[in-house]
Amino acid sequence: MELPDFVLMAASIVGFIAICKPLVGLVKWVWAMFLRPPKNLKEYGSWALVTGSTDGIGKAMAFELASKGLSLVLVGRNPSKLKAVSNEIRERHGEQVEVKSIVIDFAKFSGEEIAAFIKEGIEGIDVGVLINNVGLTYPYARFFHEVDLELMGSVMRVNIEGATWVTRSVLPGMLEKKKGAIINICSGSVLLPSYPLVTLYVAAKAYIAMLSKSINLEYQQYGIDVQCQFPLLVATKMIFIKRSSFFVPSPETFSKASIRWFGYEHGKICSRQSIMNDKCRQSGMWLILRGQESKIHRASASDDPSTMELPDLVLMAASILGFIALCKTLVRLVRWAWTMFLRPPKDLKEYGSWALVTGSTDGIGKAMAFELASKGLSLVLVGRNPCKLEAVSNEIRKRHGEGVEVKNIVIDFAKLSEEEIARMIEEGIKGMDVGVLVNNVGLAYPYPRFFHESVLPGMLKKKKGAIINIGSASVLFQSYPLFTLYAATKAFHYLWQRR
Ligand SMILES: NC(=O)c1ccc[n+]([C@@H]2O[C@H](COP(=O)([O-])OP(=O)(O)OC[C@H]3O[C@@H](n4cnc5c(N)ncnc54)[C@H](OP(=O)(O)O)[C@@H]3O)[C@@H](O)[C@H]2O)c1
């Protein structure tokens, strides 16, 4: 092997790996999304603690965990809502599931107070799963300086201090038994480069993402799985979308999917920022900014933020387009799998009982001749070397007996004129029902034109026939240096057969 061959081979290997990478990614995604069995959460411990469990995602998560047989510590600010949720869970799951409540308003208590409440509440309980779900955002988008001080304090305390102090209180028990799962409910907004007009909320969530990544590294070695999840839109009171749809799941649907991921990909989900390129991200941010700004104006005019305006529609349209693009790729993949592995081959004898193969004394042409003979087609073999032609014919006759007739035509495409080639082919196939033509010969000038006057008329007359042109993958590249002439003729061949 010389240097250029070596370089070409290296380039091919790199290209092959580049194709394999997204395929492997897709297979992994399908596995994780649809096939991978969920972890048995009871292995972490018999109790789960859920913050913000009186509504939305937290409430749905509590029901889902109870259905997996875990007992629950529900944390919320509203005692009557906590009682209602506890009763509903007990009614649904009977004695299988114990439920305990801790009343904490994360916006009102200090970190130390939160820690003391939690510590007292979980005394003697084997908490294996902690879901830091509690969250609070602004009721309307607004500029940073316009957020009133009370709301500012609440957003930081609920989102940042809530998760931090509850984790700090639950961790020692997990460390002691060397197992546990901590799931922090973050927000998809963190995956964007910036998220103006809900700045404080998204900055608090970015804190949660970093906290998750870092404690995951600290405690993985002690059997504690830390995972940060990034919901996009979920139909809860937080985002004023009450009805779920294909793009906005209900909290129940989200919780089911969320629990399937517990214990897997810990710490890793945070690294998805690279999904979109910078330009896309910047235009996305512009759209969001405009959308949120319109909400500010609306908020001052009326108190109902729930109706959809143009920028929301633009965002939704963009999501739909993205979804269509994904579907297109999937459809292509399915088509490819069908064509490559599943589609039954045509019965070539329906085209006619003879096949003509050029360049049939060696390589692909020879193999093609054998394959066609194995399908019961008789053969016209075209080649420049009479001895090699004879040898191939004899071999085919020996293998397939009388079921397959073989006829040879000796033509050197490089030496004869176009008219001579046409005449010899015409004479050679006189009276024969040639249904399949394999233009395989690979070292000549544009010979396909000559056949137009010899093989094609027969096919045209019976209105059927198959022509297979053996091209080269070289036409799929921008250029193919060092094999220029060969690649150029193959490119001609390719374009010609497409016209
Ligand atoms: N919904 C979405 O589209 C979305 C998107 C991305 C991320 N998230 C995140 O998902 C998590 C759950 O949100 P959600 O949509 O389910 O919101 P939600 O329906 O508003 O529920 C929030 C829960 O937190 C509780 N809570 C709020 N402030 C509290 C406080 N000061 N002290 C104690 N509990 C308090 C609420 O209690 P009450 O019942 O008393 O109100 C409720 O149980 C949040 O962390 C949120 O940031 C949601």
Automatic annotation (TrEMBL):
<dbReference type="InterPro" id="IPR002347">
    <property type="entry name" value="SDR_fam"/>
</dbReference>
<dbReference type="InterPro" id="IPR051019">
    <property type="entry name" value="VLCFA-Steroid_DH"/>
</dbReference>
<dbReference type="GO" id="GO:0045703">
    <property type="term" value="F:ketoreductase activity"/>
</dbReference>
<feature type="transmembrane region" description="Helical">
    <location>
        <begin position="466"/>
        <end position="488"/>
    </location>
</feature>
<feature type="transmembrane region" description="Helical">
    <location>
        <begin position="313"/>
        <end position="334"/>
    </location>
</feature>
<keyword id="KW-0560">Oxidoreductase</keyword>
<feature type="transmembrane region" description="Helical">
    <location>
        <begin position="6"/>
        <end position="31"/>
    </location>
</feature>
<feature type="transmembrane region" description="Helical">
    <location>
        <begin position="181"/>
        <end position="204"/>
    </location>
</feature>
<protein>
    <submittedName>
        <fullName>Uncharacterized protein</fullName>
    </submittedName>
</protein>
<dbReference type="Pfam" id="PF00106">
    <property type="entry name" value="adh_short"/>
</dbReference>
<keyword id="KW-0472">Membrane</keyword>
<dbReference type="InterPro" id="IPR036291">
    <property type="entry name" value="NAD(P)-bd_dom_sf"/>
</dbReference>
<dbReference type="GO" id="GO:0005783">
    <property type="term" value="C:endoplasmic reticulum"/>
</dbReference>
<keyword id="KW-0521">NADP</keyword>
<keyword id="KW-0812">Transmembrane</keyword>
<keyword id="KW-1133">Transmembrane helix</keyword>
